Amino acid sequence: MDVTGPETDWRSTNFRQKLVSQIDDAMRKAGVAHNKSSKDMESHVFMKAKTRVKHLYLFPEVTGVSKEVWNNPQK
């Protein structure tokens, strides 16, 4: 997952939108279906997270995509 940038960027609209796109890609490649949209999932995680690391750490858990797929979306 490519989410480089300063620690403060994780709250920006651009960073969050990039994550929404990456959630879509990771779920599609992993064959995982959800009744929530990727935007809803990102918003849920954003509300729970206090730091950038926690924000990124929660995505495999929330989406059901394995950490291996999540961390290597090109595969």
Automatic annotation (TrEMBL):
| Cell compartment(s), UniProt | Nucleus
Looking up InterPro entries in the UniProt record yields: KIX_dom_sf, Med15_N
**Location of the Mediator of RNA polymerase II transcription subunit 15 N-terminal domain:** 8-57
Give a yes or no for keyword Secreted in this entry.
no
Instruction: List, alphabetically, the GO terms of the cellular component aspect.
Output: nucleoplasm
Keyword hit for Nucleus: yes
Annotated GO biological processes are: regulation of DNA-templated transcription
* Keywords from the UniProt entry: Activator, Nucleus, Transcription, Transcription regulation
Q: Name one GO molecular function term.
A: transcription coregulator activity
Pfam families xref list: Med15_N (PF09606)
Highest taxon listed in the record's lineage: Eukaryota
* Primary location class: nucleus
- Assembly information from the UniProt record: Component of the Mediator complex.
Output the PANTHER family linked to this UniProt entry. MEDIATOR OF RNA POLYMERASE II TRANSCRIPTION SUBUNIT 15
**What does the sequence similarity comment in the record state about its family?**
Belongs to the Mediator complex subunit 15 family.
Its biological purpose is as follows: Component of the Mediator complex, a coactivator involved in the regulated transcription of nearly all RNA polymerase II-dependent genes. Mediator functions as a bridge to convey information from gene-specific regulatory proteins to the basal RNA polymerase II transcription machinery. Mediator is recruited to promoters by direct interactions with regulatory proteins and serves as a scaffold for the assembly of a functional preinitiation complex with RNA polymerase II and the general transcription factors. Required for cholesterol-dependent gene regulation.
Protein name, entry field: Mediator of RNA polymerase II transcription subunit 15
Source organism (scientific name):
Buteo japonicus
